[in-house]
Each structure stands twice: as structure tokens, then as C-alpha cells.
């Protein structure tokens, strides 16, 4: 979308001021060139984005094994999901816990570190890069494998605990702890929201703080009355983004649990269950229906987020 | 911007577009067939490790030498994503001419009309009839086995003796003997070496149930009773209680590891249950001499319950345009000693008696041992059962409920009922 807008804007800007038909002819030619350049992107949009999305909508109303023709079954898949599939419900529960716990924790952590870094430390770029690193790596397969080793029953974490005489549990292999460990992994990838917070903090004019301190406001008061309100749009942005992202989490659970969502379904994320349904049980129609339910859930949550934002997000320019 | 430049950009844009379109059409047309040089092109899909890929490339080369008019192209992926990519290709009408599948996928594919009948097209007179029989469904030979494995107990006898215990007599031992011995080994080694690593592999339950006169898959139903399931889980619970195995969490962790990272592979357990073709990997990883034993028996059982399972099957697509060439390639893979000499036991020990005879002297020591073991147990074997459609999901269901029981999150009664309901639903359709 951004591409289209940019090209159109450029086409307008470069149009000459003089001449009637010559201009339109020229404009038309320019537009043609623009569309030609955009063509690969359009092909991509229709062939590999919109096409499959519509196809999956159709498939969600069918019984489709991948190996045979799809059979129309109406709303059966959707009905089954909510009435006779306990694993669907439990995957929804696991994912909800994951999102509700890990997103606020992650954002709080990111904000706290951004505040510390904003104090104008020496070597800030270095710290920034170091803290950002987990965000780049966190969703990767390699880190998930490493995580499995570090948090294994005889992994690094338990070795360190052992020094203090504590017998640690199997952090990823015990169903009581496995989800917690994945939440920790998610919180650890706080770098991306942190960078955005840092940018947001830089936007707050320092004159506000100066005025506040003249009025005798302490650090905490300044944070509550200046930093936090002015940062709410950024917090909101991060919140929306992270909720969407974490609802779609897949890799961590897939790798750490060896693709099973185990032990005992304790890390069965929604997307992992969707994948297992489609590719392991050959129930592609059901998987497609699950994808649409996920889309509705995320759209709904984002909508609620936007509605709620009226009450707590403060935009400096609109009163 | 001058108009000359613009013309240029439009032209480049057009060129790019047509290049993109060309690329797309070329990619779409790739499935159908023959090379430019008039050779018949065969596509052959299989899964495995790098070493298997190398061997397969060699065997393909050999085949092409003997059949200069055929060009075989291997399509290779690792096991975990194999069925995903294969079923996607089949769904897209782009099925490879020759497909490797395993027993759990056989009914899934054959039952859906994807595979061709190979009867009379591939010579099978020298193949082990029992193993070959598993590739026939409803009177049609959909699949030809590449080789066979047995699910057996792999033992590190040195570790058993080091713990002050005697190696068992596997012809007579019972489950109680096995569980008791495992506990004593852990105790005797001072906790450094566990008695055994347990597994939820359905082959274990299949054998365990057969000894009690029950079939794991009985047609389109699960044939094990809740009592058998509870007794089976009882084995695990006893191992955990007596420390014959690590606790549930640690066991879940090692269970996820590859054979070389298993307890047996790292020399930290005396026993483990594995498919016999893994003996080589396990021996190499542990650096110890490992032995194959029969699985223990239930008291008073009349059958060992053990069976030879085809390691893989070669099948051809029902839609292939080159059925004769595809059959010829499979024939070469299973019947030609030259192919056998390259593949050896990579796809299970050959089930072709003539090929086996020809390559026997070339087999590594672990395979020779496996061969001796198989010959020893051959009279006691029962027929392997081809699982119904949906069986690939049952393995996961079994593992999940086993974990629920062993982590104490569900009672065995409850789990047995739920397992049966869910597994039956998975294979009913």
C-alpha cells in the first residue's frame, strides 16, 4: 500500500505545470510505467496473498484431506470446533494465558529498560544493540533449540541452581513449567518494543521536565504526569503489535516441544494445533476454519484495543 | 525526468513483467515430464539424512547407467517435513512418479486412489512374503517394501554386568523380570546408569497387547482394552517409582532426542527399545557393544507379539505418465544386487533373499548382528498390521495420554477411556 501511495505522489509531483493534453498524455504514460513497475507486486498480492486467503475461506467450509477433492460441509468445521473438540479449547486457553501474561510483562520490561537507557548512558548504541539482539533471534529455530538445552533437566539453569543446592524441575519437559518457560522466552525478546519506546521518549520535549522540576515535581511524579501520558500512543502501538504477534506464535512451541505441543498439551499453541490438524491429521478444511477463527479473534481483540484506547491513550495534538 | 528516460523505464518495466510471467509459466509447466534430450524423466521422492541422500544419488546414477533413456531426479527432504511436502505435491496434481512412504501412510495414500497397483510390474518372487504382504491392500500390491526392521530391546550388557547384575535370558524373561532388573541396575550403578529409557512408541504397545491376545489396530478400531492400557502404563509407573527409569520430566526430555542423544547412546542406560536398524547408530554413539534382545513376555503368553515391519515402501503414482519406467526403477532398487551393494541396510535389511546373500559380506558388524537376531526370532514372528487411515495421528494421541498419566494429571482409568474415544474417532473417518 505504502508503495502505491508513494509512486502516485511522485507521479503527481513531477507532473509539469504547463500544457493541457500533453500533460495528460504524459501523466498517463507515467502512470503506465508506475503500474508496470508495480505489476510484480500486484501479481504477488493476488496470486500469493488474496488468492490463497479466499481459497482458505472456501476450504474452511469443506472436508478437505489434501489428498482428495474438497467436500462442502457448510459450517460443520466451525460447529465441531466449539462443541466437540476439547483440544481446540485447551489450545485457545494455552495461547490466551501466553498472550495475557507475556505481553504486559514484556512491555513493562521494555519500558523500564528504555527509561534506563534514556538517561544518556555512555555507549548507548552498544547497549541498545545488545538488548535488541534477542528480538532478532528470539523467534528463530536456533534459539528455541538452545532454549531447550539451557532449560533442560540437566541444562545450564539447573546446573546453576544446583550450586545453591536447589534441585530445579524440567523447565521445558514438565507440564507445570513448560508454558512459563516459553513466556520467559517471549519476555526476553523485549528489544523491538524497547527501541520504539526509546524513540518515543526522545520525542518528549525536555522543557516539560524542566518546567516540572521548577514546580518541584520529583522523578516519580514527572514519570507519572509527563512521561507516561505522552508515551501512551507508543504503548498502545506496541500493545496492538505484540498482542497480534504473540497470538500467532508458533516456532517456540514447535521446536521446544518437538512439534507436539507437549508435554501433555501444556504448550499447544493455537497455530501449532492448526498446523497439526492440517498436516498431521490431513484435516485441511478444519485447519482453514481454525485460521479464520484466529483471524476473527485477532481482529476482535484489535478492535477492542482501539475502542478502549479512547479512554487511556493521550494524543498531544487532539485535546 | 525526460521523456527518453521514461520510455526506457516503461520498456524495462515491460521486460521485467514478461520475464516474471515467463518464469511463472515455466515453473508451472515443470511437472509434466520429459527432458529436452528425449529421455524419460522420473521423479523419486524420499526422506532421510545426508548420508542417505548420498547413497541414493549413487544408486540413481547406477540405474541411469543401465537405463540410459531414463533420467531419475531425486526429491529429498527430512522426515519431519516429508509428508507435508509430499501431500502438498499430490494435492497440487504434481505427485512424483515414484514415492517412498511408510506403513502408517500406506492406507492414507492407497485408500485415496493415489497409488498404482504394482502386481506383475515389479518382480517380487525373491522378497520375504510376510513383509511383502503388508504392501498389499484389498488384493492390490500398492507398495513394495525396501527392507525390514524389528522393534526390539537394545542392551548394553557391559553396563548390566558393571552394575553387578546378570544379563537376562531373553527367551524366557517376563515383564516383571525386566522391570526388576532395570531397578537393580540403577541401584547397582549408584544412580549413574539407569536401567532403561522408556518409550511411548506404539510398536511397544502393539507387542505388549499381542501377548495379551489383543490387536492394537483391529480393522478400523483400536483393539486394546482399557485394562491392557492400564497394565502398559503400569510398567512405566513402576519404572519411575523404582528409579529403573528417570522421572517423567527427564524421560519426556530424552524421549525427544535422537538415538545418539538417547540414554543408551550416551551410555547412561543399560536398556532401551528401538527399531533394529538403529543398532548401528546407537552402538557408534555409545562406543559400546550393544546386543539385541527379544522384548519380555507376559506370563503365560503364547506369542512373542514381535513382528517385522517394512522400513519403507516404494510406490508409484496412479497418475504417472511413465508407469513402466517407474516400475523398472523400483524393480532395480529391490531386486538388483548392484543396487543392494550400494544401499546395504540404509532402507532396512534387504528383504530380497538373493540380494541379501550377495551383500552379506559387505554389511557392517551391527547389521550382521541384526541379521542373526532376525533369523533367530523369525519363527516366533507375527504378521505386521497395516494401520488404518488416520493412524499417523494415533501415535501422538497415545503419547499425549501417556504423558497425562505419568505426570499424574489424569488417572489411568480416565486416560484409557479418553484415549480410546479420541483414537477411535481419528481412524473412523
UniProtKB/TrEMBL annotation, chain A:
Transmembrane segments: 35-59, 97-117, 129-147, 177-201, 222-241, 284-308
Sorted UniProt keywords: Cell membrane, Membrane, Transmembrane, Transmembrane helix, Transport
UniProt KW Endoplasmic reticulum keyword: no
Localization (cell): Cell membrane
Membrane topology: Multi-pass membrane protein
Region (Disordered), start-end ranges: 1-25
This protein's GO CC annotations: plasma membrane
Family, as annotated: Belongs to the binding-protein-dependent transport system permease family.
Protein's name according to its UniProt entry: Carbohydrate ABC transporter membrane protein 1, CUT1 family (TC 3.A.1.1.-)
Organism: Nonomuraea pusilla
Automatic annotation (TrEMBL), chain B:
Keywords from the named record: Signal, Sugar transport, Transport
Listed InterPro entries: Bact_solute-bd_prot1, SBP
Signal peptide: 1-29
PROSITE patterns, per the entry: PROKAR_LIPOPROTEIN
Protein name (record): Multiple sugar transport system substrate-binding protein
Amino acid at each position: 500500500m505504502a508503495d502505491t501511495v508513494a509512486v502516485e505522489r511522485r507521479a503527481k509531483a513531477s507532473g509539469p505545470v504547463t500544457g493541457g493534453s500533453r500533460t495528460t498524455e504524459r501523466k498517463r504514460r507515467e502512470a503506465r510505467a508506475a503500474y508496470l513497475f508495480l505489476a510484480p507486486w500486484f501479481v504477488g498480492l493476488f496470486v500469493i496473498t488474496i488468492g490463497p486467503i479466499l481459497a482458505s475461506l472456501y476450504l474452511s467450509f469443506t472436508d478437505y484431506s489434501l489428498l482428495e477433492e474438497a467436500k462442502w460441509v457448510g459450517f460443520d468445521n466451525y460447529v465441531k470446533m466449539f462443541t466437540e473438540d476439547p483440544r481446540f479449547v485447551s489450545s485457545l486457553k494455552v495461547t490466551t494465558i501466553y498472550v495475557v501474561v507475556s505481553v504486559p510483562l514484556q512491555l513493562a520490561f521494555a519500558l523500564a529498560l528504555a527509561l534506563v537507557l534514556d538517561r544518556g548512558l555512555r555507549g548507548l548504541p552498544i547497549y541498545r544493540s545488545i538488548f535488541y539482539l534477542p528480538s532478532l533471534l528470539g523467534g528463530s529455530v536456533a534459539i528455541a533449540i538452545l532454549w531447550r538445552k539451557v532449560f533442560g533437566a540437566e541444562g545450564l539453569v539447573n546446573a546453576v541452581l544446583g550450586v545453591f543446592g536447589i534441585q530445579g524441575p524440567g523447565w521445558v519437559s514438565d507440564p507445570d513449567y513448560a508454558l512459563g518457560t516459553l513466556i520467559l522466552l517471549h519476555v526476553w525478546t523485549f528489544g523491538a518494543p524497547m527501541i520504539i519506546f526509546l524513540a518515543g521518549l526522545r520525542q518528549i520535549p525536555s522543557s516539560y521536565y524542566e518546567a516540572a522540576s521548577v514546580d518541584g515535581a520529583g522523578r516519580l511524579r514527572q514519570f507519572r504526569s509527563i512521561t507516561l501520558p505522552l508515551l501512551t500512543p507508543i504503548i498502545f502501538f506496541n500493545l496492538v503489535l505484540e498482542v497480534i504477534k504473540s497470538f500467532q506464535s508458533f516456532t517456540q512451541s514447535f521446536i521446544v516441544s518437538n512439534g507436539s505441543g507437549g508435554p501433555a498439551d501444556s504448550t499447544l499453541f493455537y497455530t501449532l494445533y492448526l498446523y497439526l490438524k492440517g498436516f498431521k491429521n490431513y484435516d485441511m478444511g478444519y485447519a482453514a476454519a481454525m485460521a479464520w477463527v484466529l483471524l476473527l479473534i485477532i481482529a476482535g481483540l484489535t478492535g477492542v484495543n482501539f475502542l478502549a484506547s479512547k479512554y487511556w491513550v493521550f494524543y498531544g495534538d487532539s485535546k | 525526468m525526460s521523456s527518453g528516460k521514461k520510455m526506457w523505464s516503461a520498456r524495462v518495466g515491460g521486460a521485467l513483467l514478461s520475464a516474471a510471467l515467463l518464469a511463472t509459466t515455466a515453473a508451472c509447466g515443470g511437472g509434466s515430464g520429459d527432458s529436452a534430450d528425449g529421455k524419460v524423466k522420473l521423479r523419486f521422492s524420499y526422506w532421510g539424512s545426508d548420508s542417505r541422500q548420498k547413497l541414493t544419488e549413487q544408486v540413481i546414477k547406477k540405474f541411469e547407467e543401465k537405463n540410459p533413456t531414463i533420467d531419475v531426479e531425486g526429491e529429498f527432504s527430512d522426515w519431519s517435513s516429508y509428508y507435508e511436502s509430499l501431500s502438498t505435491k499430490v494435492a497440487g496434481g504434481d505427485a512424483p512418479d515414484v514415492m517412498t512412504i511408510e506403513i502408517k501412510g500406506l492406507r492414507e495414500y492407497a485408500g485415496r486412489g493415489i497409488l498404482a497397483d504394482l502386481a506383475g510390474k515389479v518382480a517380487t518372487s525373491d522378497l520375504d512374503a510376510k513383509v511383502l504382504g503388508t504392501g498389499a491392500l484389498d488384493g492390490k500390491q500398492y507398495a513394495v517394501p525396501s527392507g525390514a526392521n524389528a522393534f526390539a530391546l537394545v542392551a548394553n550388557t557391559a553396563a548390566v554386568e558393571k552394575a553387578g547384575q546378570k544379563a537376562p535370558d531373553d527367551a524366557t524373561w517376563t515383564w516383571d523380570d525386566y522391570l526388576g532388573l532395570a531397578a537393580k541396575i540403577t541401584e547397582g550403578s549408584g544412580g549413574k546408569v539407569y536401567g532403561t529409557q522408556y518409550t511411548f512408541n506404539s510398536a511397544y504397545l502393539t507387542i505388549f497387547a499381542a501377548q495379551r491376545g489383543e490387536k492394537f489396530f483391529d480393522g478400523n478400531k483400536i483393539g486394546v482394552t482399557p485394562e491392557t492400557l492400564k497394565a502398559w502404563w503400569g510398567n512405566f509407573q513402576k519404572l519411575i517409582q523404582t528409579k529403573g527409569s528417570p522421572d517423567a520430566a527427564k524421560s519426556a526430555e530424552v524421549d525427544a532426542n535422537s538415538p545418539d542423544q538417547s540414554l543408551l547412546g550416551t551410555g547412561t542406560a543399560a536398556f532401551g527399545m528401538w527399531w533394529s536398524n538403529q543398532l548401528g547408530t546407537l552402538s557408534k554413539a555409545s562406543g559400546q557393544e550393544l546386543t539385541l534382545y527379544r522384548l519380555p513376555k507376559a506370563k503365560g503368553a503364547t506369542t512373542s507379539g514381535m513382528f517385522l515391519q517394512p522400513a519403507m515402501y516404494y510406490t508409484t503414482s496412479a497418475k504417472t505418465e511413465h508407469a513402466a519406467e517407474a516400475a523398472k526403477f523400483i524393480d532395480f532398487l529391490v531386486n538388483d544386487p548392484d543396487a543392494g551393494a550400494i544401499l546395504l541396510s540404509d532402507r532396512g535389511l534387504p528383504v530380497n533373499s538373493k540380494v541379501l546373500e550377495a551383500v552379506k559380506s559387505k554389511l557392517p558388524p551391527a547389521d550382521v548382528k541384526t541379521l542373526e537376531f532376525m533369523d533367530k526370532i523369525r519363527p516366533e514372528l507375527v504378521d505386521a498390521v497395516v494401520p488404518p487411515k488416520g493412524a499417523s495421528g494415533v501415535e501422538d494421541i497415545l503419547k499425549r495420554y501417556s504423558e497425562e498419566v505419568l505426570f499424574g494429571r489424569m488417572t489411568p482409568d480416565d486416560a484409557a477411556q479418553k484415549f480410546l474415544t479420541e483414537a477411535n474417532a481419528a481412524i473412523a473417518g
